Amino acid sequence: MALASSKDTATSKGSASARDTAPARPPSRTPTRGFWSSTIGKKTVMAASGLIMLAYLVAHVAGNLKVFFGPEEFNGYAHWLRVMGAPILHHEWGLWLARIVLLAAVGAHAVSAYQLSRRDLKARPTRYAHRRKGSSYATRTMRWGGIILALFIVWHVLDLTTGTVHPGGFEEGRPYQNVIDTFSTWYGNTIYIVAMLAVGLHVRHGFWSAAQTLGVGNARRERLLRRTADVLALALTAGFIAVPVGVMTGVVN
Ligand code: HEM
């Protein structure tokens, strides 16, 4: 074929007739590109980046619960986050390293989710006839949950890290007071509680999907992983929601 690349012509070893009838070979790929463009590759990236974010959430909820031990404990923990790694790295570099890893995980998770959902739409034979029935309840929940969480994270960082949209005067280095300000508004409580429910649903299904992608093994392990997903999701949601509830009820003040 006239359009065959020079590389194809140079490396092809088949007979002339086989060459004429053979379909055009895809351009050669590096193993990384091949992995990334395969569906299983993208699912593995989703699973791995999801697990990184999950590890962050487990640490974050544990840190947030320090709010029940008073301002010194909570502000001390926030300060520790800023200086962790300082003996080895330069001041605040530990925090920036964690932020970069987290941001890369969020980016990889979002890009692979988008590409997998495009691929799924393209592969569907009845694209227009029964579009609503096409994606399962779980897929739609994950898609919307992911979008809600992405928007929440932007709002949350602007609220409690930079203070840009913070209600009341944001005080750098005094997160205890900042958290109380946020949960003293009806919209702060509403946004957080909706987002925490989304976290629970997303983690429950996401953890289970990741386990399937990475290989469940056997029926006994499958049951254990399902139970782990349920417990993790419930503990995260309850732990996060405890903070606004603590402020609303006056336990944290
Ligand atoms: C009641 C729930 C939550 C509370 C009270 C809370 C509290 C905080 C506070 C005080 C900070 C600022 C730390 C600092 O700059 O000193 C923060 C940062 C952050 N939180 Fe939360 N958080 C909650 C839930 C969540 C959830 C559910 C997520 C993710 C889905 C999340 C993700 C983050 C991220 C990504 C940062 C930015 C870290 C940074 O770069 O400084 N948080 N959170």
From TrEMBL:
Keywords: Membrane, Transmembrane, Transmembrane helix. Residues 1-34 are annotated as: Disordered. CDD domains: SQR_TypeB_2_TM. It comes from the Bacteria. InterPro entries: Cytochrome_b-558, SQR/QFR_C/D. Residues 1-14 have a biased composition (Polar residues). SUPFAM superfamilies: Fumarate reductase respiratory complex transmembrane subunits. NCBIfam families: sdhC_b558_fam (TIGR02046). This is Succinate dehydrogenase. It comes from Streptomyces hydrogenans.
